Fold these 2 entries.
Entry 1:
Amino acid sequence: PEAADLRSLAKLLLESYLKYFPLTKAKARAILSGKTGDNAPFVYHDMKSLPEGERFINCVGLVQEPTDEVQLRFFYSCQSRSAEAVREVTEFAKSIPGFVGLDLNDQVTLLKYGVIEVLIIMWAPLMNKDGTLISYGQIFMTREFLKSLRKPFCDMMEPKFEFSVKFNTLELYDSDMALFLAVIILSGAIEELPETVSTSLELQLKLNHPDSLQLFAKVLQKMTDLRQIVTDHVHLIQLLKKTEVDMCLHPLLQEIMRDLY
Amino acid sequence: LKEKHKILHRLLQNSTSPVEL
């Protein structure tokens, strides 16, 4: 009976994951491996291709900054997409059994500390060693292009690529990802809640990957790596705020990153 | 926390639309 409860928890979280994160790992891998036929993504490979690809960026709630500079417009649309992704993660968090019953301040704390980790984990399936899908899979941005940007922007994505390429070798399914995201969100200050979800993840990994030894331990180990990536990312953003006088940071992202690490 | 995280609070209490963000 206990295993049945854990399985139903896994099912519930997968349903919620599919509801809030439409670009699943399965879909992303299909796009990246060219299995989507004529719907291949537009490729960003240099500055000239940025304005050409703007028609593919259909971000809702795009920050309307008065700028003609294409790089800045792109930067603001990235921020809008990130804010929207935070909203999606919040809705997913609210669907985790027990989450909304927590004190509201505890919910804020868990989201503040977990949401960037969740976003980086969710980004991993959109990446391969050559680049990343963005804009709901409509655009592929090459790793070389990102590395060619001026400092410090060129340093922003490379650690995420290195992490993602390694993380993707674990070959988790969307159903595993749903549980892992819930574990990340709940693994802040609260002691008892994560146990059920993490036991469910452990069971699920054994069922889904019977030949992959110690997979649960390997997945949990990634949380340590993630914490460092988020810390470095936040420090980089804080540096940008000091050095890039024209840069505006989205208020929701400011809230999350303020006093984070 | 509430004063410093007004948008997060709002997201947690309501299903804020992307446009409101």
Entry 2:
Amino acid sequence: MFEARLTKGELIKKVIEALKDLVTEANFDISATGIQLQAMDSSHVSLCALQMKAEGFDHFRCDRSMPLGINLSSMSKVLKCCNKDDIVTLKAEDDGDSINFMFESKDQDKISDFELKLMDIDSEHFGIPDTDYKATVTMSASEFTRICNDLSILGETVAISVGKDGVRFSVSGEMGTGNMTVRDNTSSDTKEADRVEIDMEEPVNLNFALRYLKSFAKAAPLTDRVSLCLSRDVPLLVKYEIPEFGSLSYYLAPKIDD
Amino acid sequence: KGNQVRIENFFAAK
């Protein structure tokens, strides 16, 4: 028996909104420690890794570890019926072929339940090594969304370079070129939400497809901050930490010159 | 600008 109840049910809705552009169907691996998901996009260019800790839920019970294969676009449709302040309960039997969603309004005056059929999904799992990244930038999640959306007007590829002057996002396309530089402002009196922290061991300069970054940025409603971790010739890690609940990490393979 | 590399090239399957 699996049962998980979350007062802040909206979090689940936001998680699915942050995944469904990249991943059509995925296994939610449930165990006594929580829920994990690892999935690649259909082009195998990026990898999403979700972690939701059991302690982050108001109630969490999982008698047997198992994968719950779910179509994310169906799940997103079901979650459209969940209101902002609803309490969400997820339930599945050990040998069942469905997952149950229950949405309760805060005042307990409306209760809805939905059942979704589970799918058998043959998914590969990757071992993600602990990487000592050469540059880490932590900034406002909404500002990062803005940068990705704004620069995509000009081109498909962004060069991200972290140097002593800050982190520069550059795009060039048929229309022209654009650069946005964000500087470390930790020494000034910047309010928490707008703080930019740059931790650089050595300069890094890598190219990435903007369309994936734009999809990752859909996770911004989950939390205030995002971290970008870079090292030469390895995937970019874009990490959204959800306080007391878990994290949503995206890995994006770079574009490499011949 | 640059060739897109696949993500599997970086992570070993478990």
